[in-house]
Amino acid sequence: MAAPAGEKLTNRGHIWRSALTSGPAVFWLCSFLLVPLLAVAVISFLTRGSVGEVTRPLTLENYERFFGYGLLGFDPLYPIIMLRSLVLGTATAALCILAGFPLAFFIAGLPARWKNAALTLVIIPLWTNLLIRTYAWQIILAPDGFLARLGASLGLVTPGEPLYPSMFAVYIGMVCDFLPFLVLPLYASVEKLDWSLAEAAMDLGAGSWNVFRHAILPQVMPGLVAGAILVLVPALGQFVIPDLLGGSKSMMLGNAIQQEFGAGRDWPFGSAIAMLAMVFVLVGLWVYARVAARKGEPDLI
Q1: What is the model's pLDDT at position 188?
Q2: Contact present, 266 and 48 (Cβ < 8 Å)
Q3: CATH number of the domain at 75-295, please?
Q4: Cβ atoms of residues 231 and 182 within 8 Å
């Protein structure tokens, strides 16, 4: 039986309203996310020409090269770079958790009139360009800086030497850059924390650790995991901080991609590295989603 004319007009109106409201967002995602991503995926299967141009034939050589298989035998250079980047990203997330956990609880415990000011202080570093902040750390870690003099007085560094380039400087820059991305979602969970559960656990004889583990941590876990993901994913591809504060001594994944698209002029291989990095991140997030679903935790993916 055919639908009434009025119902057809209503359905068409819904379609047009949906197109007008979601159309710009869909166009934006397709133009600036899906199309470039598809282009990178296609280029990763092409070949670098004699003068750096992208040409045919289609090949898997770029992916084989990443995993160390080539004419000269097995070379684990890029798997090591991937592992080094994973260690850097994981360590950055862990350090941000150690620094952000007490900070989020401290802000949540402030009087209401001070909370907005404290959150603004957390966000203020993001108002400055990352490159400027990184150069600022070079000045702070210089030989005549306070931290260098303190390290020299404690015997940790040679007097007159800067604290960079070093992995210590890289970790300082990474934590300073990504700490707000962990504090903000964690604070949102801490702000809604039900302290009556902690009081009930203490009334039942639970110690401080058990109160934190069973009454507090499960309540803030969604914000903690969301913040850790927001730190881990961009930290894996960071290249400015390792390059400027690490002195290019330790090649990271982002540095490898930047080099292949820049000085190396090997877009197919750079695209292959980028695609594999994205696949590794997505697989890690998928594994977390499956584990969280089995444990009954909120699925944040």
Answers
A1: 92
A2: yes
A3: 1.10.3720.10
A4: yes
